[in-house]
Amino acid sequence: MNFSISKRIGLLAFAAFAMAPAAAWAEYPEKPVQIIVPYGAGDAIDGTARVIAKLLQEHFKSPFIVRNVAGAGGGVGTAEAAKAPADGYTLLVASTGALTARPIMADAGYETDDFVPLAELVETPIAVAVAADSPLTSISDLVTAAKDGEVTFSTPGPGSSQHVSMSDFVDQQGIELTHISGDGGKGAVTKALSGEVDFSFVGAPVYKSLAQAGQLKVIGVAADEELDYLPGAETFKEQGFDFTSSVWFGLVVKKGTPNDVIASLDGALKEIAASDELAELYEKFSYNDAFKDSAGFAEVIDASVAQNKKVLGELGLAK
């Protein structure tokens, strides 16, 4: 009799132990979740992250808090996210350059595969802009100026997708440019507006309101077609340069995060993708509707890693 009771208690204890992780995961999140944005407040991607945080908070009925950790073209915030526990309570807004280029260029404090993709949120072309009173009016002007003297430009930071892409273009043209970090897209544009640099090279939507106000000129869009929200801004291809480039942003989480937590976040983000709020966000910031789930985003990341290995290797910038 005693043996039977002991055996039964043992089985019940084992069953409780086996069910505990599933129960804990089912309650996710049990505390506030932070979303690290590796750029300064006020950028379009910061605004995007705050809308996503709001929608996740409404879905889970639990706080999702955006925290800006700027520096090194997104590298500082990405490195901090890589050090976080793999429990789903730290999400990262990952960017093309910080996630897939910086680890190839140097010891960034993390590797691309330290993270698991959740969803691609944004993909947008990159463009060249100059101050309204700049003598540069085309990409040909820019190339000629670089051959005749020093030309400076700014991007969100070293190792950013924009920096890598412009380095590739510079190599194609056989010219030299001096890069100055903007510590974010907004900072890069500010440097161009103030005349601190000759041009900025960031995501095209960042220029929309400034171009409409006549404060800057967009002299080249690295896309296959002109953009409706930047009327009159010709593509590189229209100007005789076979060059396109884009940047993406998406949510990732630390590798090793429980599968049930990842599945819960994936499901929530798929619901958000179909929401009117996200459609309004894309319209507000003139983003392409580029939402991809975890599987689709994984393919995007793999393609970016392969491309960056090729380009950075050819440029002699790989570690």
Automatic annotation (TrEMBL):
Where does the UniProt annotation place the signal sequence? 1-26
Has the keyword Iron-sulfur been applied to this entry?
Answer: no
- Family of this protein: Belongs to the UPF0065 (bug) family.
Provide the taxonomic classification. Bacteria, Pseudomonadati, Pseudomonadota, Alphaproteobacteria, Hyphomicrobiales
Q: Which UniProt keywords apply?
A: Signal
**Domain of life according to the entry:** Bacteria
This chain belongs to which protein, by name? Tripartite tricarboxylate transporter substrate binding protein
**Family matches, as InterPro entries:** BUG, Bug_dom1
Keyword presence, Transcription regulation: no
Looking up Pfam families in the UniProt record yields: TctC
